[in-house]
UniProtKB/TrEMBL annotation:
Transmembrane segments: none
InterPro entries, per database record: Leu-rich_rpt, LRR_dom_sf, RLP_Defense_Trigger
Domain of life of the organism encoding this protein: Eukaryota
This protein's name: Non-specific serine/threonine protein kinase
Keyword Repeat annotated: yes
Length: 101
């Protein structure tokens, strides 16, 4: 049985970017990435649909929230606050039964 990383807590650091430029997080057993309060910039990275918690507040992500967020059926907590996001909220956010912060 191989173990996989489920929780990744990297909040309150000075991270500025990912090693490679990518839009989608790899589809692994990672259910709880906490990248809040760093110096990450650019487009909002899209996590896999199986993600449970997605915490990326306090960065410099910009642009619109990608429509792929509507496919995250397991999402329980989403925190995109304190970024530079623009545009309109996705209509699917009104249909989610999860907790949106």
């Amino acid at each position: 049985m191989s173990a996989s990383l489920c929780i990744l807590g990297l909040s309150y650091n000075f991270l500025t970017s990912f090693e490679e430029s990518f839009i989608v997080f790899p589809s692994t057993g990672l259910f709880y990435p906490d990248l809040s309060f760093n110096f990450l910039r650019g487009s909002l990275p899209i996590p896999p649909p199986s993600i449970l918690f997605y915490l990326v507040s306090g960065n410099g992500f910009s642009g619109e929230i990608p429509p792929q967020f509507c496919n995250m059926t397991s999402l329980q907590v989403l925190d995109l606050s304190h970024n530079d996001l623009s545009g309109m909220l996705l209509p699917c956010f009104g249909n989610l039964r999860s907790i949106l912060i």
